[in-house]
């Protein structure tokens, strides 16, 4: 009897070793695991006491996931909307755990592309933009900075951390700043199809007259994301500065609309960014043929697009702030800030 119990225990340990080896050699042995994977299921089936025996036997530290458990009856933020009616999360400080997200992202070994246009005088913004991005943007992950410019020789050399590259893409300029701003849609759609699709998983498309001021990490990534405009996140629908002239392709009727999104930071997978930029560019060209330019150029077209192709994630104004708007209580972090600029000195130069 004693012998048979011992024998059964022995068999049990052997079985656990088998399951554990399958888990380790399947290549998913990291601190935080995807709870839906079958490997993880096997892992959780291992009984507690056996884990210790295993640890001793194999001298391997088992994967661990240590953090405060989510509380069903205690939402992390009660002062802001955390989810849209179409189940897209709205990203605010305090609503997510970077460690879990970073661990998940690391397993996929993806590269993020950050696109920025510095045409004509706007090259002056590049130094601060790149230096602050090295400190705060996607820290610990692989990043390609795609700099679209007509002045490649004026792109500053900035020290980059491992796994991060600057790619300078020479493009044409246009006389009017509005045209330069709008043509970004055309260039982004072209390069998404030609190049980005082979090099990165996600694109983050931003204005250059900006600086990073706090962490902007993988929490922003999703198939398609937009950002709440800092001037309108509490505004009524009727106050949104959508294009209101029916003659424009960007027209939004007064009884439609969810949010007013900012043109200066959006993104998603290369495929989704391609679809968005292509559609916006085509709409801009139709407007041009009809002799009309939307009130806020490509930002108006972006807002129209997001109305009918809902973003899968929305960034709070933490990700696009302007200090002229003060420091409201709900704003726990100012991650990406507008750099004040002298329009007369910088535009059309
Ligand atoms: C913070 C903000 O309100 N952003 C929006 C607002 O931008 P802004 O008023 O900030 O426009 P802007 O002057 O920053 O132009 C948009 C971007 O186009 C690029 N650029 C523009 C002109 C130029 O000569 N060279 C050049 O490189 C550059 O990347 C710049 O950041 O309105 C624009 C068009 O109406 C866009 O919708 C911007 O996203
Ligand atoms: Mn800008």
From TrEMBL:
<keyword id="KW-1133">Transmembrane helix</keyword>
<feature type="binding site">
    <location>
        <position position="209"/>
    </location>
    <ligand>
        <name>Mn(2+)</name>
    </ligand>
</feature>
<feature type="binding site">
    <location>
        <position position="207"/>
    </location>
    <ligand>
        <name>Mn(2+)</name>
    </ligand>
</feature>
<feature type="binding site">
    <location>
        <begin position="117"/>
        <end position="119"/>
    </location>
    <ligand>
        <name>UDP-N-acetyl-alpha-D-galactosamine</name>
    </ligand>
</feature>
<keyword id="KW-0464">Manganese</keyword>
<protein>
    <recommendedName>
        <fullName>ABO, alpha 1-3-N-acetylgalactosaminyltransferase and alpha 1-3-galactosyltransferase</fullName>
    </recommendedName>
</protein>
<feature type="active site" description="Nucleophile">
    <location>
        <position position="299"/>
    </location>
</feature>
<dbReference type="Pfam" id="PF03414">
    <property type="entry name" value="Glyco_transf_6"/>
</dbReference>
<feature type="binding site">
    <location>
        <position position="241"/>
    </location>
    <ligand>
        <name>an alpha-L-fucosyl-(1-&gt;2)-beta-D-galactosyl derivative</name>
    </ligand>
</feature>
<keyword id="KW-0735">Signal-anchor</keyword>
<keyword id="KW-0328">Glycosyltransferase</keyword>
<dbReference type="GO" id="GO:0005794">
    <property type="term" value="C:Golgi apparatus"/>
</dbReference>
<dbReference type="GO" id="GO:0016758">
    <property type="term" value="F:hexosyltransferase activity"/>
</dbReference>
<dbReference type="InterPro" id="IPR029044">
    <property type="entry name" value="Nucleotide-diphossugar_trans"/>
</dbReference>
<keyword id="KW-0812">Transmembrane</keyword>
<comment type="similarity">
    <text>Belongs to the glycosyltransferase 6 family.</text>
</comment>
<keyword id="KW-0479">Metal-binding</keyword>
<keyword id="KW-0472">Membrane</keyword>
<dbReference type="GO" id="GO:0046872">
    <property type="term" value="F:metal ion binding"/>
</dbReference>
<dbReference type="GO" id="GO:0016020">
    <property type="term" value="C:membrane"/>
</dbReference>
<keyword id="KW-0808">Transferase</keyword>
<feature type="binding site">
    <location>
        <position position="299"/>
    </location>
    <ligand>
        <name>an alpha-L-fucosyl-(1-&gt;2)-beta-D-galactosyl derivative</name>
    </ligand>
</feature>
<feature type="binding site">
    <location>
        <position position="122"/>
    </location>
    <ligand>
        <name>UDP-N-acetyl-alpha-D-galactosamine</name>
    </ligand>
</feature>
<dbReference type="InterPro" id="IPR005076">
    <property type="entry name" value="Glyco_trans_6"/>
</dbReference>
<feature type="binding site">
    <location>
        <begin position="207"/>
        <end position="209"/>
    </location>
    <ligand>
        <name>UDP-N-acetyl-alpha-D-galactosamine</name>
    </ligand>
</feature>
<dbReference type="GO" id="GO:0005975">
    <property type="term" value="P:carbohydrate metabolic process"/>
</dbReference>
<feature type="binding site">
    <location>
        <position position="322"/>
    </location>
    <ligand>
        <name>an alpha-L-fucosyl-(1-&gt;2)-beta-D-galactosyl derivative</name>
    </ligand>
</feature>
<dbReference type="GO" id="GO:0031982">
    <property type="term" value="C:vesicle"/>
</dbReference>
<feature type="binding site">
    <location>
        <position position="229"/>
    </location>
    <ligand>
        <name>an alpha-L-fucosyl-(1-&gt;2)-beta-D-galactosyl derivative</name>
    </ligand>
</feature>
């Amino acid at each position: 009897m004693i012998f048979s119990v011992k024998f059964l225990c022995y068999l049990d340990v052997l079985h656990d070793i088998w399951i554990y080896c399958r888990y380790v050699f399947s290549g998913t042995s990291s601190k935080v695991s995807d709870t839906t994977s079958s490997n993880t299921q096997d892992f959780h089936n291992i009984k507690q006491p056996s884990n210790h025996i295993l640890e001793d036997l194999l001298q391997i530290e088992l994967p661990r996931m240590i953090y405060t458990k989510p509380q069903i009856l205690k939402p992390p933020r009660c002062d802001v909307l955390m989810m849209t009616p179409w189940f897209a999360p709205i990203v605010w400080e305090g609503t997510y755990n970077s460690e879990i997200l970073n661990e998940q992202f690391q397993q996929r070994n993806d590269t993020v592309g950050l696109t920025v246009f510095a045409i004509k005088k706007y090259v002056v913004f590049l130094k601060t933009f790149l230096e602050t991005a090295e400190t705060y943007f996607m820290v610990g992950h692989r990043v390609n900075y795609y700099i679209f410019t007509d002045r490649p020789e004026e792109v500053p050399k900035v020290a980059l951390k491992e796994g991060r590259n600057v790619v300078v893409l020479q493009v044409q300029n246009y006389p009017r700043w509005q045209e330069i701003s709008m043509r970004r849609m055309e260039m982004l759609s072209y390069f998404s199809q030609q190049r980005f699709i082979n090099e990165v998983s996600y694109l983050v498309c931003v204005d250059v007259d900006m600086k990073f001021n706090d962490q902007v990490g993988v929490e922003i990534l999703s198939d398609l994301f937009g950002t709440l405009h800092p001037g309108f996140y509490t505004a009524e629908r009727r106050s949104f500065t959508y294009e209101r002239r029916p003659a424009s392709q960007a027209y939004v009727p007064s009884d439609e609309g969810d949010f007013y999104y900012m043109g200066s930071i959006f993104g998603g997978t290369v495929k989704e960014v391609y679809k968005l930029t292509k559609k916006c560019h085509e709409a801009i060209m139709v407007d041009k043929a009809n002799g009309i330019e939307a009130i806020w150029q490509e930002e108006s077209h972006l807002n129209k697009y997001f109305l009918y192709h809902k973003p899968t994630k929305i960034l709070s104004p933490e990700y696009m702030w302007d200090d002229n708007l003060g420091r409201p209580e709900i704003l726990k972090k100012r991650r990406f800030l507008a750099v004040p600029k002298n329009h007369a000195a910088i535009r059309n130069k």
